[in-house]
Fold this sequence. Notes:
This protein has five helices and 14 strands. It is about 25% helix and about 30% strand. The protein has a seven-stranded mixed beta sheet, sandwiched between helices. The chain has a four-stranded antiparallel beta sheet with strand order 9-10-8-11. It starts with 5 loop residues before the first strand and ends in a 5-residue tail after the last strand. The mean pLDDT is about 95. By secondary structure, the protein is α/β, with parallel strands linked by helices.
Amino acid sequence: LCNNNQVVGVGSGSTIVYAVDRLAERVRQEKLNIVCVPTSFQARQLILKHGLSLSDLDRHPELDVAIDGADEVDASLTLIKGGGGCLTQEKIVAGCAKHFIVIADYRKDSKALGQQWKKGVPVEVIPIAYVPVSRAIARRFGGEAVLRMAVSKAGPVVTDNSNFILDWKFEHAQNWKEVNTAIKMIPGVVETGLFVGMAERVYFGMEDGSVKIRDPPVN
């Protein structure tokens, strides 16, 4: 996935830990010159822990490749991301990369979104807008959009950008490209966890230890 003298976007979540372990191993063994741009506080800590070279989008606005996980991947490589709350930075970093590669375990593999992942589509919102946005989403697309509550803190989850997250539990399959655009146009919405037409390849780690590769369908 990574070659010498590359700038690499490092995603967030459980599977990325393994990818960064392997990347750090290759940097040491092959004396690679790699610069890493994180998508979250967690990713930043991971890069520093491994002694990898840390940068940002100010210094490196163009990335050679971004590697990230996903909460669910459908047959056409549309993703739901943001279970860990870092959807906005993840999408920004993925959008700056020439190649966006996803690593996930086999349980994230679905024919259609919502089959495996039952927590809905995360939507990052400006705090004062969470009620109007929640109502607008439910009214236009059905289902319900619920404010994500924190576990070890009283009140809602607060993102790295000091915003709130709504989890939209949709009822049926949608035209995800249209829905993504429509939700983004609602005032107060910062970003959605729908990644449409962004991933160019997904590597699934299978139960038996093998790897299954999926590329987007050829239209």
